[in-house]
Amino acid sequence: MAVCVAVIAKENYPLYIRSVPTQNELKFHYTVHTSLDVVEEKVSAVGKALADQRELYLGLLYPTEDYKVYGYVTNSKVKFVIVVDSSNTSLRDNEIRSMFRKLHNSFTDVMCNPFYNPGDAIQSRAFDSVVSGMMVQAC
Amino acid sequence: MVDQRERSESMEAHDEKPIIYTMENKPIVTCAGDQALFTSLYNALAQQLPREPMEWRRSYGRAPKMIHLEANFVQFKEELLPREGNKALLTFPFLHIYWTDCCDTEVYKASVKDDMLRWQSTLRHHGTQDWLIVVVETDGKKKNKTNLLPRTSIMDKIRNDFCNKQSDRCVALADPLKDSSRSQESWSSFLTKLRTLLLMSFTKNLGRFEDDMRTMREKRTEPGWSFCDYFMVQEELAFVFEMLQQFEDALVQYDELDALFTQYVLNFGAGDGANWLGSFCQPVRSWNGLVLRRPIDMEKRELIQCRDASLLDLRSYLFSRQCTLLIFLQRPWEVTQRALELLHNCVQELRLLEVSVLQGALDCWVFLSCLEVLHRIEGCCDRAQLEANFSHTVGLWTYATEKLKSLGELCGLVSEKGPDSEDLNRTVDLLAGLGTERPETANSLQSPYKKLKEALSSVEAFEKHYLDLSHAAMEMYRAIGRMRSARLVGKSLAEFYMRKGEPQSAALFLQDSLKSYVAEGWTLQITHTRKQVADCQKQLGQTEDYLQTSALLASDANLTDEERKHFCQEILAFASQTSSGQAQKAALSMSAFAQLRELRFRPATAVLHVGSALQLELCLCSLMPVPVHLEQLSASVLFTMEQPGQKIPYGSLQRRPSHGIAGLSPDGVVLFPATSPSGVPSLGLASAPPTLELSEIQDRSPSDNALNSTGVVCKNVHLLLRRQDSSTSMEMPGAGSASAAAVAMEDGMQQLKTLDVTLLPGNNIVHFTAPSQKAGTYTLRQLCATVGRVQFLLPHIYPVVQYEVYSQEPQLTIEPLSENLLAGLPQKVKFSIVTGHYTLKKGEALQLSNTESMPILHTHTCSAQILSSTGELVGENTLSIHSSEKVTSISLPPTLPYHTLLFHLEVLCHIPTSPARPESERLTNGEVRYRTKSHVCHNSGMASVDQKVSVDCPWSIYSTLISLTFYIPFKAKYSLLSAGKRKYIQVFLQNVSETNFRLDNQSLTQRQPTPTLELSSLNAKAQQLVHSKQSVFCLWEVKWKTDPPACLQFSFSASFAPSDVPGAELKPYVYDFQLERVSTLYSVRAEIRPGSGEQHCRTGALCGLEVSITRLTEPSDAERDDEETTETEGLRTTKLMYEVVDNSSNWAVCGKSSGLVSMPVAASATHKVQMELMPLFAGHLPFPSIKVLKYLPHNATPAIQPDTDSCLENDNLSLLDKGLDDQADTASLRSRGSVHSLGSCDQPQQPAPRVLPMPRLEPFAPGQVFNCSRGRQVLVLPAADDHILEVNAT
């Protein structure tokens, strides 16, 4: 389903980034990093008006020829980015939303772990398996 | 835009073939009947029809709309009516109007009616019911013709003939060409009617059309169904909506078609292919991009109609229609967004449908399309609007840039060599697919077509266009704040430059990108970009930067081992070059090469004395993939002289860590915060400010070393208070050439060096020996690893690492071993010599000058301990002590510097005899002198002796004076007791120390023995135990045969030893005192007799008191000088004062209670005084006390000179105090005071000159006056007449 899933800290460094192993990892890193531009743009555009009622899901950040990049920002400004193959047309907006929701839940679990130091890279196995689940489903 | 549409069409052209397929379409309305009449009305009608909107209520619950109606009026022809099965809507006549101005019934009947009937039947034949008959009435005609019939009659007739049910199908238009109110009314009702009917027709006909269309769509699963046919039908509907200026509705039609097609393509991808899709799967032969300048691209439309369109054709046509409508709707930004989606989608769909496309053809198509869309948008928006919406267009710009780049790469336009023949062939093929330029853009210089052709024509042209596009995209990204995207474009530009072999142009873009990746901590990008930077730097010959980057890459865990080794090898290869022999060394930051992890001091305190060895253990983690041999590893050390204020106090070697070494743990380890190797700030650290580095400062005045101020200082303020934004990324090591300055070696410092170290990957331990030649603070500043020509430098060691070296003067201290030293007993004293920088050589000795009061008792086995500076026992030596008459010499064992020599010595302080007494007594009575040591013994009032010892030390020419304080364990007091003429001496000895003593051999002796005097001891036991804080009394009777001398000196002596040490030697204790005027001079006897005739004394009744004072002895020689006598008539008398005092208020003295008596100085002379007393209580009452004092007349000089400036009265008091001792009680003082004032009332409290002649009183020495009736009582009965008995029961 997803070809790349990334969690980016408030300060814009990656907390977690994983992509399908078959493709060029570096390319996804560049894509995700560039998408932060749009995330920031969207967040700041909405943020002024209704910061507290803002929807976390940002929708399609931008399409490229091969991929679609979706974004999601938690209230603590942690960003989730999911990259989906453009050829995968069966994916509806709702499914993307539910993926983000799942990701957010799992991320919350990671943060609740007393042994996790906020700001560190995420190495949780449970989180990993959730992400794997999202990536496997389609492939 | 709507208004721009030309209304060029006119009735004049109506007989020509109606033009359709243009966007200037209007709904067709046919006109039959009187053509000349209609022509005259046409202009007015065409103008007025759209003037007012009409509400259009629509079927299927669609929202009603206000609509301005227009119409294309066409002469009625039968061919215009659609034949059965013709679905064309654009050519469909929605309303048929019959015009007539006939007002003559005859004419009507003759011709018009027939014409109308024919018209009606034709209409009926084609099944249309949308018709209207207009009867125009003009006044002119009315006048010409006779008004035989009322005008209504024609209307009625027509209505009768044609509109049997629909009377509204016939309208009258009155005086249409006149400007009258009637005419206007008539027009307006006519127009309303016309509009209503038109709308009715639309609703009906479009509804029918839509139904048909839906039916057709439902058949799409049937085999013969064709998308293209359906497309044409639905587009017809879109055209009509567009014609009615319902662009929204029109767009919906296209969107539906779009969605339907997309669904089919997706289904095809899922294996469910429709037959008709086959035509779209044909290979792409033309890729000339979108055409958006025409409202309708007829060529493509025809291709679709002929089912000959390729996928790109269909998509292009569909999008061009959507674009047109969106622009009509003034939504240009949706165009750009949809365009991007379309282009992405087309690429995907072609892939999905496996359509064969020439390589690069799609790139051409996308490139052209992007530019076409952008041109179209630029055409309809002004500059400001465009700038405000860069975010919508920038995607297309970037896409175009990417495509051009890949085209350039495909056609060999990017390489340094330029295109080869194969590339040229490819270019020709691609250009062929573009076809010829379209006529619309043929004249424009900047058409996408021309751009692409030009770009592909030459390397230079390509570069120009590519750079133009890239820069435009970057500018736009910057303008809207998408810096990351801008940098990505910049990076791709850099790659282009690198391929072109222009590294200098690439460097800036690469550095810029790298900086941003480093700032945000994206490691993969950092690695990738850094590799490119390395390549660029290598090409540019920036050796030092290249080496720095290589070092970072060599330590980069994201790279493979081979790559890391390669970069490491690059450094090592450079290092081993011995070129040019210059000492030009490359200084690189160490952070990429190795990390300082830990630093360990041995000894752990990091404080050492001059010349001692300090080991530094460095834990260095090498980040290189291979072992690296370092020729030298050095640490530079900053030396700071010891500040006078920070002098290390002697003897406190174990002190720590009040100041100095921050972060030094007790085991002497400094840990360094780990930074990630690639120069990436460890996560979260990038934004967090550095930790505060605080240290304490003390400002002491240089003269007396007193503390002026103290405070806490932050040492890294410059780091904390600088601006946040610009700093983080700029100062990253390895970010580029900017960092070179930071890696400067500091010169002129001491170096710790270790040669030939091989650093293995991972942690390495390196040892240093730290210098300690001078006293002061040594701070480690830099670390430098040298590999051939390369130096890796750690410019700052943080946290601050320092160690201290101190220098110390030799010093001798002598301290008591126990808490207090006791005088009179042998006591142990501790000698400690801190050698400091001095070396005690063999044969050197301490010379103690002996004093008699404190001999040094040396034992033969006296051993000394030698301790090292850390307190370890190093050795033990015996001391030899030689005593000569004046000096005790202690020869010391040889001792190394900074060691401590310890030994004990026994000394004895003799207890000073009486002369020391007053002094020490005064001390104990007065201010406490020994504040320096707070011991319990202060409270017990121990007297002490300060004993000074003068020591000559071998290291100094001056003698050292050391004071020891000894405490006297006993306190002694004597008192003289009398019984008539017999005398007793009592000695009171109190043990004030904490020790229990055995006491023996108490004896009292005269110091100058008088043979006539005999002392007989009344003490029972010889040996006694005196516990701490307890006392012993001893008593002797003094007997003499002849008169004793006036002054007797006694010496009390006893032997004592601590009771808890059995067999301890008894030490003497001597107490000297002196007695004066021992013998009794007067005896005083009192007698109380009851009043006359009474048996007993009674309360309230006066009694007689007789005091008789008797002189017992002849005056001795001593007395003669002492006593004040007066010679009167050959009889020597002395004046005494007596005083009766009752301090318990038992008695009331009636009359004089005191008086003067002249006593003859002769034995047995008696003087009696009578007085009257009254007892106040009944019972056995003690006698009132009777005092006798010497009375000195005013001319006599005081026996003892009073102190200079104390007043006389005080003098007297002190004299009294002294002499009376215990016996003088306060009452006597009081009464004496009263006598005093009685005797000399003229100067009661004059504080002044002592020469004032005044009588004085002086007490007798204790024992000189013996009171015989002391302690006597007399029985007093209650008053006789008083029968009340007072009983006090308690």
Automatic annotation (TrEMBL), chain A:
Gene that encodes the chain: TRAPPC2L
Key words of the record: Cytoplasm, Endoplasmic reticulum, ER-Golgi transport, Golgi apparatus, Transport
Chief place where the protein resides: cytoplasm
GO term, biological process aspect, one: endoplasmic reticulum to Golgi vesicle-mediated transport
Gene Ontology cellular component terms for the protein in this record: endoplasmic reticulum; Golgi apparatus; perinuclear region of cytoplasm
Organism: Denticeps clupeoides
InterPro entries the UniProt entry points to: Longin-like_dom_sf (IPR011012), Sedlin (IPR006722), TRAPPC2L (IPR044760)
The family this protein is said to belong to: Belongs to the TRAPP small subunits family. Sedlin subfamily.
One Pfam match: Sedlin_N
Name of the protein: Trafficking protein particle complex subunit 2-like protein
Transmembrane segments: none
Compartments it resides in: Cytoplasm, Perinuclear region; Endoplasmic reticulum; Golgi apparatus
TrEMBL record, chain B:
Region Disordered, annotated ranges: 1231-1255
Domain TRAPPC10 Ig-like positions: 811-966
Keywords recorded for this protein, A-Z: Golgi apparatus, Transport
GO CC terms, sorted: cytosol; TRAPPII protein complex
InterPro entries: Ig_TRAPPC10, TRAPPC10/Trs130, TRAPPC10/Trs130_C, TRAPPC10/Trs130_N
PANTHER family: EPILEPSY HOLOPROSENCEPHALY CANDIDATE 1/TMEM1 (PTHR13251), TRAFFICKING PROTEIN PARTICLE COMPLEX SUBUNIT 10 (PTHR13251:SF3)
Locations listed in the record: Golgi apparatus
Domain of life: Eukaryota
GO terms, biological process: early endosome to Golgi transport; intra-Golgi vesicle-mediated transport
Location of the TRAPPC10/Trs130 N-terminal domain: 24-335
The protein, known as: Trafficking protein particle complex subunit 10
Domain TRAPPC10/Trs130 C-terminal: 1071-1277
Residue ranges of coiled coil: none
